[in-house]
Fold:
Amino acid sequence: MLYYIQYIFYGLPIIALLFFIISLCRYISAKRKNKAMPNSYSTEEIKKRKLLLIVSSVIAGVFIMVVVSLIVLLFMAAAYM
Structure:
């Protein structure tokens, strides 16, 4: 049971980071295709992908900061023992 908690603890930030990378690639590819061939993506689609990129970056940042801060706190606690 303990391993499931560790998988969740480390897995969620990894999944959030992958979600950010995928949304970043989708946004960049849509911008490039729209630049090469105008109106290949609508403005609503570009806005939707940009919003998804912003949301995924915030989620990934929060998860990664939580994991890093807990690791730092554990190292600090072990250092002062």
Q: What stands out?
A: The chain has a mean pLDDT of 91.
